[in-house]
Specification:
single chain; membrane; 232 residues; Tetraspanin_animals
């Protein structure tokens, strides 16, 4: 279950990145998601080893189980650190790229950057970089010469909205830059909290494995019982 949850979180980050990837250029932001998917896959293997070691009462298996848990724990700590590092970089990345993306807008349903802008404006209920007036400075606005912004800026409860700036009340009033930054930071926090939660679980698992190993090494009666049962 833990492996499945971690893989789901990593996949969710990838899918969301695909929707917002035009707004930041640093692909290394995905490193925490890649690592957490790898950890999820490794957790599945750990679960199998742990079950087999417990059933067979194997000291070697339990030691291997504890060692792998330690490796996973360290990896999850690295994910937390990377998550905080890249979360701090999100705002700078978006600020650096968003103006360029808006300048490349060429109309609804044309190229990928244009579709990304329309998607973000609809999903986040925003318009422009800081507000809808930012569209006046874009190449698309100047070339279209119709004094309108994309219809993706229209509020859904407004009928017959064409995006015209003569009716600004029909448009979303908030800019997209701050909302994109907020959304990406929230996604990175999902990764951080997931890594912290499962790191705590790994710590508990390591402690349990170590306790079992210590009890076996200091309990001659238990060893004798296991040996007798083996010969029987």
């Amino acid at each position: 279950a833990a492996a499945g949850i971690l893989c789901y979180i990593g996949a969710y980050v990838f899918i969301t990145y695909d929707d917002y990837d035009h707004f930041f250029e640093d692909v290394y932001t995905l490193i925490p998601a890649v690592v957490i998917i790898a950890v999820g896959t490794l957790l599945f293997i750990i679960g199998v080893i742990g079950c087999c070691a417990t059933i067979r009462e194997s000291s070697c298996g339990l030691a291997t189980f504890a060692a792998i848990l330690l490796l996973v724990f360290v990896t999850e700590c690295v994910v937390v650190v990377l998550g905080y590092i890249y979360r701090a970089k999100v705002e700078d990345e978006v600020n650096h790229s968003i103006q360029k993306v808006y300048n490349e807008y060429s109309g609804p349903n044309t190229d990928a950057p244009s579709r990304a802008i329309d998607y973000v404006q609809r999903q986040l209920h925003c318009c422009g970089i800081h507000n809808y007036s930012d569209w006046r400075n874009t190449r698309w606005f100047k070339e279209s010469k119709n004094n309108s912004v994309p219809v993706s800026c229209c509020q859904p409860n407004i009928n017959n909205c064409t995006g015209t700036l003569t009716r600004p009340a029909d448009l979303y009033q908030e800019g997209c830059e701050a909302l994109v930054v907020k959304k990406l930071k929230e996604i990175m926090m999902y990764v951080i909290w997931a890594a912290l939660t499962f790191a705590s679980i790994q710590m508990l698992g390591m402690l349990c494995a170590c306790v079992v190993l210590c009890r076996r090494s200091h309990d001659p009666a238990y060893e004798l019982l296991v040996t007798t049962n083996s010969y029987a």
